[in-house]
Amino acid sequence: MKIRSKFIIPIALLVIIFAGVAVVAVNMTVESLVDDHQNSFTQYADTVVRQQAQQRQQAIYASIKTLGSRAVEQAAIFSKIPEVQVAYQIAALGNMDDETDGKMQMAREHLRKVLQ
Fold first, then answer.
1. Residue stretches of the chain with pLDDT short of 70
2. Whole-model pTM?
3. What is the pLDDT of residue 1?
């Protein structure tokens, strides 16, 4: 074997080994970076979705509160009508927990006639 072959074969083997180690190291680094990026994106997306859900929840609660206030105002105005008070007095004579009670039905009929 020539002296040139004695130097080239070990150097070629070392280059191949180092190239294999470099490929494995780069592959592990890239996989780690991809995992970190995916975790960061997942956390970011979760945070954004949670914030949007909270904003929408607050908007819904505000709408419910506003509509509730309007309903109470309208009910207060409606309850001041004398014929509505008469219907309530008729209903109070019966059992208000029983919707099939005769007095309750009479009160409903009275309201229907008056409000037509």
1. 1
2. 0.51
3. 65
CA atoms lying within 13 Å on the CB side of residue 110: 17
Contact 106, 96 (CB under 8 A): no
CB 28, CB 36: distance < 8 Å: no
The separation between CA 37 and the C-alpha centre of its own chain, rounded to angstroms, equals: 25
Pull the structure tokens for residue 53. Answer: 């859900």
Residue 98's φ and ψ, nearest 5 degrees, are -110, 110
Which two tokens mark 20? Answer: 């294999």
Domain ranges of the chain: 1-73, 81-116
Copy the structure tokens of residue 113. 């006639």
Least Cα distance to 109 among 81, 90, 92, 93 occurs for 90
